Amino acid sequence: MKHWVRNAVFLIFWLAATGLVIGSLVKIRPLTDTKAFKESQFTDSELRQVVDRVDEAFASAWKTNGVEPVGGATDLAIARRLSLALTGTIPSLEEIRAIESHSGEQRVQWWLSHLLEDRRYSDYLAERFARVVVGVEDGPFIVYRRHRLVSWLSDQFAHNRPYDELVRDLIASEGIWTTKPEVNFITVTIDQNNKEEGPDEQKLAARVSRAFLGLRIDCVQCHNDFLGGKWKQENFHQLAAFFNRAEMSMTGVRDNAAKEYEYRYLGKPEKQLVTPKVPFNEALLPEEGPLRTRLAAWVTHPDNRPFARAIVNRISALLFNRPLHAPVDQISLDGPFPPGMEILADDLIAHKFDIQRLIRILVATRVFQLDSRTADPGHPTTSAQEAQFASFPLTRLRPEQVGGSILQSAKLKTIDANSHVFVRIMRFFQQNDFLKRYGDMGEDEFAAGGGTIPQRLVMMNGNLVHERTKQDLVMNSATRIGAVAPDDRTAIETAYLTTLTRRPSTEEQIYFVARFKSDPKVKRSELMEDLFWTLLNSTEFSWNH
Amino acid sequence: MKAQSTEFGCGSINHISRRTLLKLGGAAGLMWLTPISQMLARADENAPKGKPARSVIILWMAGGPSQLETFDPHPDSKISFGTKAIKTAAPGVKLAEGFGHLAEVMNDITLVRSVVSKEADHERAVYNMKTGYRPNPTVVHPSIGAVVCHELDDSGMDIPRHISILPDQWPARGGYLGGQYDAFQIFDPKEPIQDVALQAPQERLDQRMKDLSVLEHAFGRGRPANLDANTTLHQIAMSRALKIMSSAQLSAFDVKQAPAAQRAAYGDTPFGRGCLAALRLIETGVRCVEVTLNGWDTHINNHAAQRKNVDMLDPAFAALILDLKARNLFDSTVVLCGGEFGRTPKMNPVGGRDHWPYSFSIAMAGGGLRGGHIHGSSDPTGESKEPEKPVTVQDIHASIQHTLGIQYEKELMTPVGRPLALSDGHLIKELLKA
Measured between alpha carbons, how far is A478 from A412 in angstroms, rounded to an integer? Predict the structure, then answer.
């Protein structure tokens, strides 16, 4: 081939590629219309009143404890929190541009509406919720299909199905685990080594008490509470007795009315018959019906407040990365409750356990929109402020959030259900490889803790960070931004937005502009690689703030 | 929250240490006339003889090895289903066939054939065996390696002191002691260790670290000055990571540096290489190495699958014992070999043995433990679940900690505000050298 032909072909490809990159940087793809968003919805008195009451509850607690709240966070900082909490990644550059182009007063609520209509939200919430109700292990072979359950949960959250209905389905489910995915809540407890036994009533009772009631009644499984608590061993086993009749049959999980639960209590010589009985609020238990159906009705009864408190605490934990009350599954029956919990529980019950409404209210509160630091470096945040939510809690991102954010930062467009299948497959495998090295927190998703050495090694030298920051015009935003940005200042600013969802401070801008200019022999693509590596290895990237 | 020791333990008379007793008993001359003197005598009697061990190697048999096809064969019983036994160098001690190499060093090994547990589910049993506590929803207990690292000094070490080679899904954890005590995980030592090699030249890394300090300074504004030390541990972990990356001690992982004959002795398997790496790491000063050999969960075709694993375990275990002795590390290193439970005396219809937590076996060596000794015995008919001289998992933990000079009764404050003993088991005195 003649040289000029080869050069011409190369030039055409180069121009086309550059055009695409510039297009993606400049053009704002109109994000899907947010159907549920109406500006008036967030200024009307009814919803606003609930938000105000929660705000007042926190303000009162701060006053009582002599704690001053910090100032408000920027909209972009709040948008980052929301994306991490509801999709497990940071916002893409494309999304940041869209957020900034929205001029309404309710920019945060508009962004929230957009996320709630994004399938990533329901998928992500479903996985978080599945960890609570069935854990993370593969479970028994053949009779358990975790992915079916997660997919079913995602559908429920996508349609914002009332939470109480969803929980009733899980507890009282019957049938085959493949056609009735909710049955997997029951079948996951089957111990296949013990072939004579069906679902494990004790594991199910523990799950129900922790996941749906925010109580650790399972702590008295083997003995009465010797730390002065109210629970007795019989409270747990009477709860377990509701599940004793569940067994496997030709038609899947069914209740066998003839089965009785027997247990030998600590210190007793023999097993004894255990009658199903709920540990509190006995009047709310229906008198008729199959045992699990009755239990499901009791657990989710509007007057059974621990049920509402438990999900308020879990959704708060998801949004703040820290529950209002810790541990997340150990809320006292009689209080005292953290500020706002009872108000939020009341509203949830009054609005038929509408999870999306609960999220909207929490996000609209002042406490969610506080900064995670003070504006005055001379008076930094205190542990008292953080403990009482008078500053937004600084918490370690979960491994899947870190992995998801690295992958998203390498793309200028959002990686979502609309992305090319190749992009989504790549994301899936790269994320899984990363989690194997970085670690997975399993069910213990809100455990406090700092960074570890293996995690730092993975971030400094691991494949994912290297592959997604190296000089690659096609695959990596670092190179693409460097290639098309008109000047260093723009390149640096865009890199900050793409990774940290903020613009550099003046100090940072001056430093990096000088750094980019310090050695003219170094290519900008190499400098961008260094800058991205640095941004991804910062504390700020790996922590929720 | 950093766990803290309570100086006087829980106050129980059994939990008073020798040192505490000395503090309490001012009139030394009268002590032999008092009840305190009796307790002191008892504490002294229980103290490790000679210098305590300083390291632990755990050969973790993931899935639950069959005691009948490993350390507790019953060749003349119907429960053997054809498994034969071989004589060993220790008089009267037999091993299942396939342990030809280990048989030769049996005078250095103690077999405990009466371990009892209450956990038959893999995840729960692994937790129980690795931590010495049954799973408890309120607190995550630390593994033995984490306890050892927490209790013993860390002088001179750049690389992590707690390492898991070929980990399965439940590697050793730091539990309530913190993520910094989690085992550092590596895979087949024939491959370079992941994530420690620089992805850019050193001068670029230096520049990147300088750039990073600008970002960290910006992030610290308006936040407490001790944020990193008290909360994020980000920069602390990073500086430790940098230390590892440039440490000469990394060569301990590189088994290719060992002579070919030594490598051959361990067997050309990932597990064999893992054991050789364990030796090199202990020699470098690492406190605890866990080497996992998976594949013992033989619900189907038990004999063939167990034998396949025995063939990998036997040369590696024996070579490890010999090399530890040759390097004068045997008395300062406790070696433990076992899994989460044993396997049923009965065979299931597909030729497999199922989970059996009632009377299973482990092997222990080094660290002031007796050799050529058998502790306890299981029922040769397989009918009884109760062995003679039963030993709980907690007792094993207490005994290992004892040989390391750790006061296993010592209580640490857990994050839930409840003090917990390092181990709530009891010392098995019969395992110790006279």
Answer: 10
